Amino acid sequence: QPERAEHWTRSVCSYCGVGCELELGTADEQVVGVRPVLDAPVNKGHLCVKGRYGQGFAQSSRRVLTPMLRREDGWQACCWDEALDEVARRLLALQAAHGADSLGVLGSARATNEDNYLTAKFARHVLGTHNVDCCARVCHAPSAAALKTLLGTGAATSSYDDIERTRLFLVAGANPNENHPVVGARIRQQLRRGAAQAIVIDPRRTELAELATVHLALRPGTNLPLLLAMAQVVLAEGLHDRDFIARRVDELEAFAVSVREWTPERAAAICGVEAEAIRQAARLYANTRPALCFHGLGMTEQGQGTEGVMALINLALLCGQIGQPGAGLNPLRGQNNVQGSAHMGCEPGSLAGGIAIEAGRARTEQVWGRALPQRPGLNLMQMLDAAEAGRVRGLLVLGYDLALSLPDSQRSWQALKRLDLLVVQDLYLNETAARFADVFLPACSTLEKDGTFMNAERRVQRVRAALRPRGQSLPDWQILGALAARMGRGEGMQFESAEAIWDEVRQVWPDGAGLSYARLDRGGLQWPCRDEDDPGTRVLHAERFGHGVRTSLRPLDYRPSPEVCDADYPWLLSTGRNLYQFNAATMSGASALQALRPTDTLDLCAADAERLGLREGQRVRVRSRRGSAELPLRIDARLQPGQLFATFHDPAVLLNRLTSSERDRWVHAPEYKVCAVQLERV
Ligand code: SF4
Question: Of the residues 11, 12, 14, 18, which should be mutated to test ligand 1's pocket, given the most ligand atoms within 8 Å of the CB?
Answer without folding.
Answer: 18
